[in-house]
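Hey, can you fold this?
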Amino acid sequence: MSDVAADGEPMARAMALMTRFTTDITACVRNALGPELTANRTVQVVITIGRQPGATPGTVSQQLGVSRSQLSQVLHRLRSMGLVRSVRDPRDRRSLALWLTPEGDRRFAALEVGLQAWYVDRRDLILAMLRLFGETAEPRAEQQRRTALDTTLRLSAAGSDYVRAASERAAAAGVSDVNERLALGLLYAEGSMRPVQLGEALHMRSSGVAGLLNRLQEAGLIRRLDAPPVADRRATVVVLSDSGNELAVALMRLFAERADAFSGALRLAADVATNEGVA
């Protein structure tokens, strides 16, 4: 596990980049499977059935850690969308097998292709994040390379675990939005940033950045300071308050505790991005 005190700046950068990276992967998955699939659990069920055609509800329920009643509700929605079908086992009428419909199969195939291209397009970013963890994309000893989908599930598991812990810690300080947590990490790494720089880093418009900074300031986590004029215009820089710095360090500790999981998933991503993984 990385030491936050010794590696604060690279760990803060890794935390901000990794949070954005996993958020963007989620968007990629939903774009491929369809905008109507907004719930993570629904996406997970489609992927599980796509990877294991003919799986029973009991198998899917056990693998995803959900109750049979919860799974039944998800399956009802997926059937109404025309993405999943249930088939009775002719040898045991009490047993059901779950399959994707032709439309479900089409979307699942599009997901695998889309993810492969997504990783290849972000090869340089993946390698840069590995360096922040103090690692390089050396050839690995495993005989079986992972697919883009395997890699995504591995990243999703690591990301979900961190997000749960970070959300609980941040909520206690009045922070509920992922971009607010990202801003804290960026400010810790940079020391100070102008609002326009934060907007560029977070892919947000100026109005969105202004609202985000207002919320963080109201929570006592940042300060706005006057900076030397830029191009004859008054400039403002944003810095963390003592409370903001304390929260940023706490979030980094949570992230550092999961550094091995993230770096392991990134090594798989590097395989896929360099076409060593299997599409």
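Oh, and this one too while you're at it.
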Amino acid sequence: MIDVKIKLLALDMDGTVLLDDHKSISERTRQAIYRAAAENILVVPSSGRIYSVLPEAVTALPCVNYAVTSNGAVVYHLKTQKVVYSNYLSRVQANTLLKNLPAGLWAEIWYHGKIYLEAEKWQQRSAYALNPFHVNVLEEIGCPVNRFADFLAGMQDEIEKINLPLIPPEQKQNVWKVLSACPDFSLVDTGCGIEVMRSGTSKLDGVRGLCHYFHQKKINISMENVLALGDSENDMEILQQCGLGVAMGNAVPAVQKIAKAVTLANTADGAALAIEKYALS
């Protein structure tokens, strides 16, 4: 048994708590979450997803009150939709980034619960080999605009991230090189693409921001009291620096290598097992 007092569960969603349909959780996982809440452990979804498409199977649970979204760019109190922590990109940063991308690259602006993309790209979406799940998300909350430059001019400086979900392999290395050379940005490699947030943004940063918010309310939770579960590269930082980072059995090898423990796969109740083993009395 690893001797860490767990007060907060930072739970990745896709590939971790959720089953492979990207929307449901197992009964054992649901019961493990309820049991954690009964022991006064806070349960916090920690996701790359934007707020508006967080899975209802988790957010509808009465014991789930906060969520870390967009890879840590925004942390919400779910019941009031109040932002309790944020680390946004500015319009200037976003415009500079978008103007310097290769022509024809699929790009999205994640902003205020919506995903904005240029209308011309959306009309030609059949020519892009986008992930079907992502296409479904775009059909739900996607908002075509004529030109990014014009759209950005009317926005607030509250851009959660720029998503580049599909970069041709022959271009990706150079795009990464250019973006990583800019100190304004934090990057996540998603395999087929790159997600771009403001420098310092990560799930770790989002959970730290939430802990700071709790401290202001005289609730004593620090990162050493956090059990984090995840499966992807955007989980690596928090898995390394929280009290107990647990990788899923289906996690990529790099994530399993840096985690303090490895549980079973998301389809084999791995999240529930980790909560039961490491968080519950």
